[in-house]
Design goal:
Elements lengths: L6 E2 L2 E2 L3 H8 L33 E4 L5 E5 L4 E5 L12 H4 L2 H14 L15
Length: 126
Amino acid sequence: MYAWNGKYGGQQLIKPETIAEYTRCQFCPDNRRALGFDRPAANPSVNSAKNASQSSYGHTGYTGTYFWVDPQYDLMVIFLSNRVNPTRNNNKISDLSVRSHLLQVAIEAVQQGKSTPTESPVLKEN
């Protein structure tokens, strides 16, 4: 619903102005947060991707889950994970910037007009 500016199923459920206010950077440039979401960090590997637009927003969860919306590309990426299994000391998702790389691959696929990438060097097994 956020990606479609408050519309779902052909109905306007949330006013576009409300979506715009809720997702805009509230205290930029000192704080990249929106009211309910994160905005792209100066270092894209922190939470977004190098090609993510400045209008994008999302959330990175403690367990590694992730979603990111980029209205410029009409794109939403959702990554479900459980980095705390078998131990909370597993930081590979962050250390390897898996979520940022996944978003970058999705953006590049959209930019190239593909629905899904055929192969990504970023996601290859090490």
